[in-house]
Design brief:
alpha/beta; globular; 504 residues; Amidase signature (AS) enzymes; 13-stranded mixed sheet
Length: 504
């Protein structure tokens, strides 16, 4: 069921289908799809219609999409068909169906950030990442569900209901970009955009068995991203293959004058990097990522991936990142402090939810925020406000920033000896819905292997490396130095070839 809007977007409602059908379906590659459209064997319009039909069938079960932009998407597809019909070259993502996480501004669509406080907000502009997708010929299908304001590790914190994992619908897809990961795993989009603040791309990619990329901080513009923690937030792609993820990052990356933190570093040809073998690369294995708390089946799958790299000629070196144990407390001080400042703007004054029970200005602020924010967001605002308060700033926030610097320097020292670091993405495979929702600390620890890279500003990705006995996907995390995306794509492609039984 859909509620149509005047601009052609549609808000989706949840009505369970008669049957779940075949949820898991790998999308066609960008290369194959563009070739079919360019050669006239298929139209971009027919491809888009097919995706909308699949979304209508399976989204009621998964709850991955919050809204659709059908009219807009079909206009974009028609423009690509016109180019193909004239024999003109297609842009890099010409005709490729893409979904966008609902924390990014997109013309013609709501931007709720998974929160009631932004219900009804419709930005009149595109985030830079979205604008670059449009320019590259992508067909934008709609907005994807996520944890409220990207705060969560399971996508159970969304005000619009949890997302279900297509691999096992009784389990979480990971968070906060759960809708983005689930959409690729269920072939409800060829690629999607997500955001990663402490693991919100990599962990869902691991849980859903897809590829998810954390670019270097500053590599992809944050303009138009509804902020959670400004020194940590990053925009990146999900895809079914390393090559597709690399192609999308080539489109997204590059300097943007609208983002003061955007880097001017030249953009490499990441897709070409995926074609290179890994022979001679030095791979670091951090001892601290393989200790207590790591599920044995996850460890076995990751070690299989490491063995595959060794077999392809990589030099495997054991390294130490001895301050890893401090990453979780540092992250949850820095991130919550920045969240408390960023979310102060949502006060019911100019846009979003305004309480109807308010009797004066003070009660309007209080009630609008009380009614609009969910429990996890309130918890993090309170934690962050406390850490920034007089008398506690030096003891908590300043100290956390000092330890953050130590973590970053530790990575830099490691990358003086190795080309990339390989580790588990998450300590477990996907857990059951509701399993950790009453225990915030247990939920926070799900990010134990991802927050370090976030704090250090380095790049990373998660690539599938096997599954548990129950068939749940396991992700292998590849970390690289600042602007070392080519190296991590090269390593990930090596793992992917081994997992797919392709000779290097």
């Amino acid at each position: 069921m859909r509620e149509e809007h005047e601009d052609g977007s549609a808000k989706l409602t949840i009505n369970p289908p008669e049957t779940s059908g075949q949820l898991l379906e790998k999308p066609r590659s960008i290369r194959a799809l563009r070739t079919a459209i360019r050669e006239g064997n298929e139209s971009a319009t027919a491809v888009a219609e097919g995706y909308f039909a699949r979304i209508e069938r399976y989204n009621p079960l998964l709850n991955a999409y919050l809204s659709l932009t059908r009219d807009q998407a079909l206009e974009q597809a028609a423009a690509i068909d016109a180019l193909a019909g004239k024999g003109d070259p297609l842009p890099p993502l010409g005709g490729v169906p893409v979904g966008v996480k609902d924390v990014l501004a997109m013309r013609g669509a709501p931007a709720t950030a998974g929160s009631r406080i932004l219900e009804g907000y419709r930005p009149p502009y595109d985030a830079t990442a979205v604008a670059r997708l449009r320019k590259a010929g992508a067909v934008l299908l709609g907005k994807l569900n996520c944890d409220e304001f990207a705060m969560g590790s399971s996508n159970e914190n969304s005000a619009y209901g949890p997302v279900r994992n297509p691999v096992d619908t009784e389990r979480v897809p990971g968070g906060s970009s759960g809708g983005s990961a689930a959409a690729v795993a269920a072939n409800l989009a060829v690629v999607t955009l997500g955001t990663d603040t402490g693991g919100s791309i990599r962990q869902p990619a691991s849980f859903c068995g897809v590829v998810g990329v954390l670019p270097t901080y500053g590599r992809v513009s944050r303009y138009g991203l509804i902020a959670f923690a400004s020194s940590l937030d990053r925009v990146g792609p999900f895809a079914a293959s390393v090559e597709d993820a690399a192609q999308v990052l080539c489109v997204l990356a590059g300097h943007d004058s609208l983002d003061a933190t955007s880097a001017t570093q030249p953009v490499d040809d990441y897709a070409t990097a995926t074609e290179r073998d890994v022979k001679g690369m030095r791979i670091g294995i951090p001892e601290e990522y393989f200790g207590e708390g790591l599920d044995p089946e996850v460890r076995a799958a990751v070690e299989t991936g490491i063995d595959a790299l060794r077999a392809q000629g990589c030099e495997i070196r054991r390294i130490h990142l001895k301050h890893t144990q401090y990453a979780i407390p540092v992250y949850y001080l820095v991130a919550t402090a920045e969240a408390s400042a960023n979310l102060a703007r949502f006060d019911g004054v100019r846009f979003g939810h305004r309480s109807k029970s308010a009797t004066n200005l003070s009660s309007m602020y209080r009630l609008s925020r009380e009614e609009g924010f969910g429990a996890e967001v309130k918890r993090r605002i309170l934690l962050g406000t406390y850490a920034l308060s007089a008398g506690y700033y030096d003891a908590y926030y300043r100290k956390a920033q000092q330890v953050r610097r130590i973590l970053a320097e530790e990575f830099m020292a490691a990358f003086g000896e190795v080309d990339a670091i390989v580790a588990p993405t998450a300590p477990t495979a996907a857990f059951r819905l509701g399993e950790k929702s009453e225990d915030p600390l247990a939920m926070y620890l799900a990010d134990i292997y991802t927050v370090t890279a976030s704090l250090a500003g380095i790049c990373g990705l998660s690539v599938p490396c096997g599954a548990t006995a129950a068939g749940l996907p396991v992700g292998l995390q590849v970390l690289g130095p600042h602007f070392g995306e080519s190296a991590i794509f090269r390593v990930a492609a090596g793992v992917e070839r081994a997992m797919n039984g392709v000779d290097a």
